Fold this protein.
Amino acid sequence: MTRKSVIMFLAASVVGLLFSLTSVQAGEAVEGTAKADKLEQCVEPTAVMRRNHFEFIKHQRDLTVHNGIRSNKHSLSGCVDCHARKDASGKAVPVNAEGQFCSGCHDYAAVSLDCFSCHRTVPGEK
Amino acid sequence: MSKVKHQGRREFLKTSAAAAAVTVAPGVMLHTLSAEAAPRTEAVTDKVRWGMLIDANKCADGCNDCVSACDKENGLDLVDMPEGADQGLWERQRPRWIRQVKLKDNLSGKITNLPMMCQHCEMPPCVDVCPTGASFRRADGIVMVDRHTCIGCRYCMMACPYKARSFIHAEVAEKLTHAPRGKGCVESCNLCVHRLDNGDTTTACQDACKHQAIVFGDLSDPESAVSQALKNYPSVQIRADLKLNTGVRYSNI
């Protein structure tokens, strides 16, 4: 085997390895692909959101369902729209998938997350 | 395709509204246009009562455009039959907000078709019986279910004289942003409330009806198309004997 063919073989196997790695990556969220990844802070300062996001969402849900107010500073669909990441193929990854924005924290804190038994977990259809 | 049609309609309404602005007081038009443009920021009030008039004469035999439009608009077509379920049971129990009803007069043989959905009663029996307050009537006359408080007891389904409510028996994989849906809650027609809250003034079934059998609008506004139609043509409430004052009325049945 010549030196050249050995190099060619090595190069081909490296390319093949990289290719298989990226194909495994498909379906997994890519960091930096959520709208929120590019923003300084959420609709409120980060500390306030960490402490009170559930209060905001709960308050908004009653306003929306009973009063029809859909101007959506504190809406759950706003959370999903901004925080859902995309996979390598550009498809949105559910915010409640393992390790994603919502469930990452909720799993760690052992707080059950019931929103998504009814609500859509990826940004809207429009 | 329907989306393009829908935009066309909105554009048409906007331009005709602009044309009307010349003759109508400018303040009134400003209000209408801002309502058209953006999601609602203030609570609904009882100044509006949404309702419809359905002309059963125009409702064609074999047509189910309103039902499929409703299914699509509200994500009902995304609800799959649970695995291993009985096909016949599924057909009877699957969530549907509009039912096609066919009436036959045994004496004359005359057949009447009509869509039957939540009648948006002023005195809704479903609200009376709900133990948690989940079944409620919004200020603008829309009767709906707050799924956050619904416990799935189905008393409302028993109480409704119109068989208008559906129950979600199994988890639903795919749902729309504006139509959340989960196992163990009751639901029914909400007059496309997400459209109304975002400033639109039509429902999916009305837009889909090529026979113009459905007129939708504000019953409290004497100038609205639906009020004018109710004023000019004879119409009935179904089960008027129950004195529920329904928001959905029918003519020619």
Q: What stands out?
A: Chain A has one domain: 29-117. Residues 29-117 of chain A form one domain. The interface with chain B takes residues 61-72, 77, 80, 117-120, 123-125 of chain A (CB under 8 Å).
